[in-house]
Write a structure and sequence with these properties.
alpha+beta; Glucose Permease (Domain IIA); 2 domains; eight-stranded antiparallel sheet
């Protein structure tokens, strides 16, 4: 019995050692919350058609789907890690577990009167009783821990199996929301415009610019048609330190950090998911949108007098030159092919990072000079 108690205690503490992440964040609970978030996004999609501002409503719907799907992927990743951790404990102790079960089965099969007798007589029987009285509570506690761990494995496995349908519905909903958003933006005609395009001046600037810096500098001085004045009624400098990220993602490289080729850029490289929506962190005027150099499709926003925000690497662009956009307005979508439900499950299990396959490049410039976005975005705070 002492061997049994020691074995169970060893497994119990091994399980406890594998559980710190669960104490901080329950994978099953997080996954269920993510499912609820996707349900809420589906409701937003149904209600968007009745909204007075369909573009804003659909933009929020797309973002809600992105957040829900990202949370779902993270919940599944944590669930997979937790299940593997529990199973690892059992596999490591499989031999001793088999021995323990054999001992317990023999004890259970023995007649109850014989368990009360001891070869050494009454003294041995009394000692055995004392040992049993000490060991029994420990055995019960550790047995409950093992039972709980096995139940958790069953819950996690069931969660992963049910995730396929939830993910498929979420992916379909997100795609439908993007399609509706693209159409709503195409139909929109109520946005104010500060100026209209000057194709000749813009083409001359594009042709003569060999770097993004040169293009941005020239953009501040290029002659435009129909300029009406003020950028926005809001002072952009008041946004310092509080701007939200233009896309849901993770900053891979910050201002001045070199990449694998040793190239340093005066901006942020942000890893995003395929088809991620890109929005304006602040009310801004569209100063340029279209292909530029080797940056792919680019949007240049003017959030304040003397300031430019460059967003490069998009696939689909929204808006027209000179339009004044409100905060949180969609300016485009990232490229890439969105993973299906099975691929998401595989990438979550392998932690492959396939869900962040696209990169958005962002620069913030003041009077033609690049400045570190760290001081402006809440995500830059340490």
């Amino acid at each position: 019995m002492r061997v049994a108690a020691l074995f169970l205690a060893g497994v119990f503490w091994a399980l406890q050692a594998s559980a710190p992440a669960v104490a901080q964040s329950d994978p099953a609970l997080n996954a269920r919350l993510a499912m609820e978030a996707l349900d809420a996004a589906a409701i937003k999609l149904r209600e968007a058609e009745r909204s007075r501002d369909r573009v804003a409503a659909l933009t929020e719907t797309v973002q809600a789907y992105e957040v829900g799907l990202a949370a779902m992927r993270e919940g599944l990743r944590r669930a997979t890690i937790r299940e593997a951790s529990i199973r690892g404990v059992f596999e490591a102790e499989s031999d001793r577990l088999a021995q323990l079960l054999a001992v317990l089965q023999r004890i259970e099969a023995a007649p109850e009167p014989s368990l009360l007798l001891h070869p050494d007589g009454p003294t041995g029987t009394a000692r055995s009783g004392m040992i049993l009285s000490e060991v029994a509570p420990v055995l019960q506690k550790e047995a409950l821990a093992l039972k709980s761990a096995l139940q958790e494995v069953a819950v996690l496995r069931a969660l992963q199996e049910s995730a396929v349908d939830v993910l498929e519905d979420g992916l379909k909903g997100a795609q439908e929301a993007r399609t509706r958003l693209s159409q709503a933006i195409s139909d929109r005609s109520d946005l104010p415009r500060r100026f209209t395009a000057n194709p000749e001046a813009m083409q001359t600037l594009i042709t003569s610019s060999e770097t993004l810096e040169a293009f941005a500098s020239g953009l501040m001085t290029v002659e435009l048609d129909g300029v009406e004045g003020g950028v926005t009624a809001l002072d952009f400098t008041t946004a310092r330190g509080s701007l939200e990220m233009p896309v849901l993602g993770t900053v891979l490289r910050r201002f001045g950090q070199s990449d694998a080729a040793g190239i340093r850029r005066p901006g942020w490289v942000i890893a995003t998911g395929p088809k991620a929506i890109v929005t304006t962190p602040w009310p801004a005027t569209i100063r340029y949108l279209g292909p530029l150099l080797d940056y792919g499709n680019v949007v240049v926003l003017e959030p304040g007098e003397g300031y430019l925000m460059v967003l490069a690497g998009l696939d689909q662009l929204y808006g027209r030159l000179g339009e004044v956009l409100p905060k949180g307005a969609a300016v485009g979508l990232m490229g890439g092919a969105e993973l299906d439900s099975q691929a998401i499950l595989i990438s979550s299990a392998q932690a492959s990072g396939a869900e962040r396959s696209e990169t958005l490049y962002m620069e913030l410039r003041w009077n033609s000079e690049a400045v570190d976005p760290k001081g402006w975005f809440a995500a830059g705070k340490e």
